[in-house]
Amino acid sequence: MLATSMRRNHCGSMWIITEHEYPKFVKIVEVGPRDGLQNEKEIVPTGVKIQLIDMLSATGLSVVEATSFVSSKWVPQMADHTQVLQGIQRAPLTQYPVLTPNMQGFQDAVAAGATEVAVFGSASETFSRQNINCSIDESMLRFQEVINAAKERQIPVRGYVSCALGCPHEGRIEPSKVAEVAKRLYEMGCYEISLGDTIGVGTPGSMFKMLQMVKKDVPIDALAVHCHDTYGQALPNILTALQMGVSVVDSAVAGLGGCPYAPGSTGNVSTEDVLYMLHGMGIQTNVDLNKVIEAGDFICNALGRRTNSKVGQAKSGTL
Amino acid sequence: MAAAMRLVNKKIFTPGMGQHYLAFTTAAQVYSAGIKASQALPETVKIVEVGPRDGLQNEKVVVPTEAKINLINMLSESGLTVIEATSFVSPKWVPQMGDQVEVMKGIKKKPGVSYPVLTPNLRGFQAAVKAGASEVAIFGAASELFSKKNINCSVEESLQRFDEVMKAAKEAAVPVRGYVSCVVGCPYEGKVAPEKVAHVAKRLYSMGCYEISLGDTIGVGTPGSMTEMLEAVSREVPVSALAVHCHDTYGQALANILVALQMGISVVDSSVAGLGGCPYAQGASGNVATEDVVYMLHGLGIKTATCITTRRDGQVTKMSCRAQRRT
User: Fold this and answer.
1) Is 3.30.70.660 the CATH number for B46-319?
2) Where are the domains of chain B?
3) pLDDT tens across A111-164, in order?
4) Touching check for B255 and chain A: CB below 8 Å?
5) pTM, to two decimals
6) Is A32 within 8 Å of A272 (Cβ atoms)?
7) Does A238 reach chain B within 8 Å, measured CB to CB?
8) How far apart are CA A133 and CA A139, in angstroms?
């Protein structure tokens, strides 16, 4: 049973009283090949991307976000989307969702063999306009088209809500707005809603408040968290989400992908560090941490840079 | 505020865990069903800043005395109420702290701020008091092997040495803080039993230490092992006298600190700019960064008495990193 309540004390600081059980199992959604590589300066050759995805498939991950069918004009790093999707060796129990921002992207994705897609909404109007050149409402209309087409083909659709804990343009984002967008995506037909702390400004405090609001409108087992580690807060934020009943966590091997809004900062939380925490808590993931580290080593060599994962960094020193 | 904790199903760790770091996070053979916690977060958290000592002690570059003094003075202005200044260990063992007396005498002590120093034995204590120290700290270990390798004696022998320091400190009315290292894992022994940690913590507390800082020396702890350990220790030592000293070697520090707060702990050790790598894993990170801890605490609405503004924070970080000759 989950019983969560919050009240403010007379000084205004937040007291959280929680009674929680951690999930027995957490599904990791590996976003390194897409969200990670999309935000790396180096454009990685198609062969390397395919090898990375194949290595990740061998770790036991049940979801590996493979690529993005966005126009290569906007995201050159993902220009080889068709070759990647057609080149990977799909593990039988693994899904390979791809981003499809609109009908064109969806059709290209299906033609390339996609069996799961994702759409990307935002809780911030300004971010929506700056990022995908339209308002939130307009983006929802586009996504409805995609979701309808996907339904006809029985292709599941995952929904993302970016800026769930803060926006680089607007600053603070109201939890009610996040809930509104999440609810819309869920009611349109997304099977899962991933709530993204796009600029990593969230803390357990804001994560708690946001999830408390969103789970009124979307069932907790349809929610995922996508935390960025820009301010080092990703793991405590994920822990808070787990305490509130979330059991799906997005992460990127080797913490691939910097933060485009804060040069030099880290971005995605590392899959290795998330697994270390979950396994240490006795939570099952069916993912082999050693093999993820190997995949991380591989891609970091290819990129010519150090892993962002603390576990990866410690491993090379070996305690 | 006592936490109500119940660990449902014990983990079974794989045999021969030894030194393999991954053994600390191996998926349990028997599922650990989950942890129930019912706890309010503290209103205020005291940060114990260990950068100038624990941080710089573990940096390769030996920082000039002047730079150390400047760092401590800057930290004094940030609102921190405890800044661990230096260590009265023989410079033969810790050359980075060779200028202990000059540092102690050179800093501008701010009223209301405490500047504890490490004193491993009576000799160190006497030298510290002579140099003007008004608070000291002693360092025990929960692991026998670590104690032998680190300070060349058994845990029991170290506690006897500390007894001498405690007696002298009581006479001089100098408060003593106790540290327990390897509270979750040891680079030599592997997993450390929570009962052992509780035993050492209790001894230090009974000897007269006003606060016991529980150190995850190699950063292998997770919210799972952290909770187990704190549950055992808080049965022997009041939670209000406990602190956590988490290392971020595996990126777990903030998550571990969060569960500690949820169990009623309200004192957190951290190091400005995350100074101090891990001597047991080259290239790995070490101390958790004060900036990241304060960011989390303020985001939770918890007061810390530090006013870490971006500018001030940036200044301190830049200055300490310049002293290290790195960005």
Assistant:
1) no
2) 46-319
3) 999 999 999 999 999 999 988 889 999 999 999 999 999 999 999 999 999 999
4) yes
5) 0.89
6) no
7) yes
8) 9
